[in-house]
Specification:
This protein is mainly beta.
Amino acid sequence: MSDLGVWLAEQSKSEREYLLKHQPRDFIEIGRDFNRYYRWVTDFGFIEAKLKLLGVQPLIEDYDLARNPDVFLSQEQTETLKLIQGAIRKSAHILEKDKSELAGQLLGRLLDFEKTDIQGLLEQAKQPKNSLWLRPLKANLERPGEGCLRTLSGHTHSVFAVAIAPDGKRAISASEDKTLKIWDTETGTEVRTLTGHTYSVNAVALAPSGLTAISASRDKTLKIWDTETGTEVRTLTGHTSYVTAVAIAPDSKRAISASGDKTLKIWDTETGTEVRTLTGHTYSVNAVALAPSGLTAISASGDNTLKIWDTETGTELRTLTGHTSYVTAVAIAPDGKTAISASGDKTLKIWDTETGTEVRTLIGHTDSVNAVAIAPSGLTAISASWDNTLKIWDTERGTEVRTLIGHTSGVNAVAIAPDGKTAISASYANTLKIWDTERGTEVRTLIGHTSYVNAVALAPDGKRAISASWDETVKIWDTETGTELRTLIGHTNSVNAVALASDGKRAISASWDETVKIWDTETGTELRTLIGHTNSVNAVALAPDGKTAISASWDETLKIWDTETGTEVRTLTGHTSYINAVAIAPDGKTAISASRDYTLKIWDTETGTEVRTLIGHTSYVNAVAIAPDGKTAISASPDKTLKIWDTETGTEVRTLTGHTDSVYAVAIAPDGKRAISASRDNTLKIWDLLSGKEVASFSGDAEFYCCAIAPDGVTVVAGDRSNRVHFLRLEGVSGGR
């Protein structure tokens, strides 16, 4: 702990609370002591103590004090405070849940900055603690100034829609988890959750007053909500299929909805009665927007067209054609004369609403464009796509201004704040992100993989790691420096798994291209290709002697290979669905496979016979690891749990709970006392296997797909959906190097 941290801890409880609440502001407003203010807010002990007592937002606000024009700090000091505040803000959604991650988050976001006071802060953060924690050895999280300002976390499934209140201080999101959430956009905190729908909520609109919201659901209804109390005012029924979209008229007295039943409906919001139905589309209506006058509406449909409607009479005025795939979204400019549509054909189109003519096409996304919003000025628009990005466009020129990167899954929706300076996006990955649209700094390009990292393995000396990726390559890394040593090229599709021989000189990889390849890790050359599977090979394991390998495939079989000759020794059958993983026991005589059929199977590798089946998971099994004594195994599943098994009896010993989403991978430390798991909830967790308790956690910016522990028991390597390979050290382990 820093000297300031020690001093604060020595104060009485009441004195410490006063200091943490008021001292930074008192330094500036009363004492005019800017240097002491600066020393406090760059001290890890102070940051940690304030976070524990008051939470994230009061801590963030301490750094806002430096923006006062009467505060005199050097440019270097001002930049340092911006970086620290930016790192804390980016980590806010993590720190609100787990304050113990402070040190790891600061290191992961600030390690690359060479400023003296930043490095001093990080040295304090690295000091010994009273508990286990994962220390990043390389800055592999988004840095301050990159990507979004803040992440909003709370939904448990995909977020399909978002709307921002007229004052810009509140936002409301709609999710597959059947709820809506109201957020404070300034603090990033969840204000309340609205429940009542019985199926996913597809869309939400806010009335001009901000006091009322209307949601549209797959349960075929719309609901009107009082946003101040969170109570449901009424339910609108009439659609015969899921409701995809909703828009509210400027006077708030009318709303219009779009549905999978191919119609739109106009509603009286005060009585909840249906006013009229608009028919004409020949496929699902995916979106609807109302002109500022409220007299016309534009709908977007799966029939590849948009239609302009007279809302007073319900008549179709014109049809807009030009997209070559389903139209997913539409927005109308503030002047009502222009509209922009988004489509599955990867483009956006700008339309003249008075003539129905296409003005221009915006090209740049590499996958379906799911949403579009137009800034209040009408001069820029933001689009959201399944390619995981948002793009800002100059609508007058039709040019792309910048790309916003940071989501690790498809972006379903986007809304722009009334001031035009902030946008909020909603993602398939359960989160929302807040962006500064004027700055829009892009995430740095890291040297390494160009797509998801599916698997990692460590050499026996712990100095080398090897990773496998969707980008069809295998990469070898120096774990001490985090630098890439070489790339192994040869697979023609995603590489799903990789294993290293005990001498570290050979590696074996498995791929979607239905092959297994053996590599010389020192030269990077391909030694041989093993052919025999008839579908994707998802996993591969090497026996301790390196002479035998076992592969697992979507063809529902495992194959045992002689690695020296490349010949297939035998095929193991028994699973009734895809096989996701395989592990070989230390004695080489037993293997365990994990399958999409919700089971694990233990095999005798010498005879190829099935010894027993392990049943207990309530979803498919993604991964399995065997302890050094061979008597225990751990499995990981999308049911959000890990299970510890007695391999000799086939009984379940205990279930490890703590992850909030699918668990993709698991590895066991060499001493058999701890395990590490990787999950879709963006976390790595360390478990004490004797007690079954979680003892440490590290949160990333993306889903973790894989993890491994080195023979030293403290070096950890993990790969994630944002293409990064993370290098960490487990601190606080007695006897660790």
